[in-house]
Specification:
The complex is a heterodimer. Helices cover about 40% and strands about 15% of the residues of chain A. Chain A has 15 helices and 17 strands. In chain A, the strands form five sheets. Chain A has a seven-stranded mixed β-sheet with strand order 4-10-9-8-7-5-6, with helices on both faces. In chain A, strands 13-14-17-16 form a four-stranded antiparallel β-sheet, covered by helices on one side. Chain A has a two-stranded antiparallel sheet with strand order 1-2. The two termini of chain A are about 35 Å apart. By secondary structure, chain B is α+β, with helices and mostly antiparallel strands. Chain B has one domain: Sufe protein. Chain: A, CATH 3.90.1010. Chain B is built from five helices and four strands, in the order H-H-E-E-E-H-H-H-E. Chain B starts with a helix and ends with a strand. Classes of the chains: A alpha/beta, B alpha+beta.
Chain lengths: ~425, ~150
């Protein structure tokens, strides 16, 4: 693992970075906390917590509607956060950045507002079998509303790859929207989003990328990706809960009707008609999560201060190390891309997580026992029930890593899992 | 540690070799219950006799060790019980896991008392009560009505 980290351009003091996270310095059930549920939500560095506090102690005011000094400051900081988000994903303009509550709301916005206008009976919605419920259910609601049909790109099996041999059959001109995840929260699969978007573009199919698992973990350039929409959440990338970003290519946002009605999203209101505000404000009805956006700005600065290439290499090294050690335990059923195993590529491309099942032990039992040793894992269907059914399982246990996690923590996880395995094997 | 109490040998044995596990071809009531948190699914199959007492009871589905052990032990307790007796047992079991005051489990629970350790794991109470939620619904079906409910 250390070899991989040395490959990154700068030497990074990961231990010092870990010190930025007050929450990590505690004991759980008498053991030092090992937090490995980062795919669910990340922890927050002190600077992000401070940004929230500072806003409420000094600048709190409503945005875009006050003339006074505080409103001026709040509006400035809120719009600066929008500029920062645009830069973070290399959008052409901050007009393409809509603040949402998170990835889920971003996808719902596109499905409800854009989808209801642009889809009709018989049209197809193309998804993949590895999608999170939040990238399935909004499309089911849309399909029901307009009479469209859902189609899925299959997943090959435990190794969690998309079966792209089917893509020509499935990605056709009657598909109106193709929505897919960048990195699978259940398998760690990294999908070839640039290629998928290029194929869709050739056919005039609109694309949406679910970047919930990637936004805080690797560089994102929406212009290079070539997507029409891209959604992510602040809380999985060191930001607070309740704030997220929907990117929409300007032309796409222009052709999208409003999502919710209210203040902020209008330019003039009469009793029987209303003129909409310009994008992106057209999609931000009501007082937004101002403090959340401002703290997300801080989180983006913080992440880019470390460098997303460095974060990606770090997470991937931990995931590969964990994968290798779990395989060595024996009889562990592993999900997601297998290890590469060549000197040139010792780690296959995978997100920073391991998803697995111990023999004869239910994931819930694994997680309960691991928690007793202070190791926070996730066990369950990870909001991908259809994928679980397809694989013939109900749940997996998952350890998901971030840049503040260490190799020693991976060792703690594996040692605890070995104990759990031993415990449940007694009397078998 | 607390989990030694949670995962006692009898509980592990029931989870590995669940009793009364399988379909019940002449069931009067088939009820499914699922735990959306983890995806566990248990279906309970009940046959009532002419006296409206439980004549046959089995379960199918899968879940964690706590969920399966609880379902297995529950089915062992239900045979020949009236609806009222079954309902009373359900409340007694539920109280053991959730009542504010921890008390010695009543003798009527038998081996089910071994699940008392779940109290210390509030997030797992749902696992232990999943089959009982199915039972609760099953008991609400009208006498003589062959109901089949899609579940919660």
């Amino acid at each position: 693992m250390h070899d991989v980290i040395k490959e990154t351009k700068e030497q990074i003091d990961w231990a010092k970075i870990r010190g930025d996270f007050p929450i990590l310095n505690q004991e759980v059930h008498g053991h030092p906390l090992v937090y490995l549920d980062n795919a669910a939500t990340s922890q927050k560095p002190k600077c992000v917590i401070d940004a929230l506090v500072h806003y409420y102690e000094y600048d709190n005011s409503n945005v875009h509607r006050g003339i006074h000094e505080l409103s001026n400051r709040a509006t400035g900081a809120f719009e600066a956060a929008r500029e920062r988000a645009a830069k973070y994903i290399n959008a052409k303009s901050s007009r393409e950045i809509v603040f949402t509550r998170g990835t889920t709301e971003g996808i719902n916005l596109v499905a409800q507002a854009w989808g209801t206008k642009h889809l009709k009976a018989g049209d197809k919605i193309l998804l993949t079998e590895m999608e999170h419920h939040s990238n399935i259910v909004p499309w089911q609601l849309l399909a029901e509303r307009v009479g469209a049909q859902l189609v899925y790109i299959p997943v090959t099996g435990d190794e969690g790859a998309l079966d792209l041999s089917k893509i020509d059959q499935l990605l056709t001109r009657d598909v109106k929207i193709f929505a897919f995840t960048h990195i699978s929260n259940t398998m760690g699969t990294i999908n070839p989003i640039v290629e998928l978007c290029a194929r869709a573009r050739e056919l005039g199919v609109t694309t949406l990328v679910d970047a919930a698992q990637s936004a805080g973990h690797c560089p994102l350039d929406v212009q290079a990706i070539g997507c029409d929409f891209l959604a992510f959440s602040g809380h999985k990338m060191c930001g607070p809960t309740g704030i997220g970003v929907l990117y929409g290519r300007e032309e796409k946002l222009d052709e999208t009707p409003p999502y919710q009605g209210g203040g902020e999203m209008i330019s003039s209101v009469k009793y029987f008609e209303t003129k909409w505000n310009v994008i992106p404000h057209k999609f931000e009805a009501g007082t937004p999560d101002i403090s959340g956006a401002i703290a997300l700005h801080t989180a983006m600065d913080y992440i880019d201060g470390i460098g997303r290439e460095n974060i990606f290499a770090h997470d991937q090294a931990l995931a590969s190390y964990a994968y290798k050690r779990l395989v060595e335990l024996g009889h562990v059923r592993m999900f997601g891309p297998p290890l590469g195993g060549t000197p040139e590529q010792p780690h296959s491309e995978r997100g920073g997580l391991v998803s697995f099942l111990l023999p004869e032990v239910h994931a819930h039992d694994v997680v309960t026992m691991a928690d007793q040793y202070g190791v926070a894992l996730r066990g369950g269907h990870h909001c991908t029930q259809p994928l679980m059914r397809k694989l013939g399982i109900q749940s997996t246990a998952r350890g998901s890593f971030y840049f503040y996690n260490t190799k020693e923590e991976v060792d703690r996880m594996v040692d605890v899992l070995a104990k759990i395995h031993e415990f449940f094997s007694r009397g078998l | 540690m607390d989990f030694e109490e949670l995962y006692q040998q009898v509980i592990l044995d029931h989870s590995r070799r669940p009793r009364n596990f399988g379909e019940l071809p002449d069931a009067d009531v088939n009820i499914e219950a699922d735990n959306p948190m983890c995806g566990d699914e248990i279906a309970l199959h009940l046959k009532f006799g002419a006296d409206d007492k439980i004549e046959g009871v089995t379960f199918t589905g899968s879940g964690c060790s706590i969920c399966v052990a609880s379902a297995s032990m529950m089915t062992q307790k239900l045979k020949k019980k009236s609806r009222e007796e079954s309902s009373a047992l359900m409340h007694t079991f539920h109280d053991m896991l959730t009542a504010e005051q921890e008390t010695e489990p009543p003798a009527v629970l038998g081996d089910l008392a071994l699940l008392k350790g779940v109290r210390k794991f509030p997030l797992r109470v749902k696992c232990a009560t999943l089959a009982w939620h199915a039972l609760e619904q099953a008991l609400q079906t009208k006498q003589g009505a062959a109901a089949s409910d899609p579940g919660i």
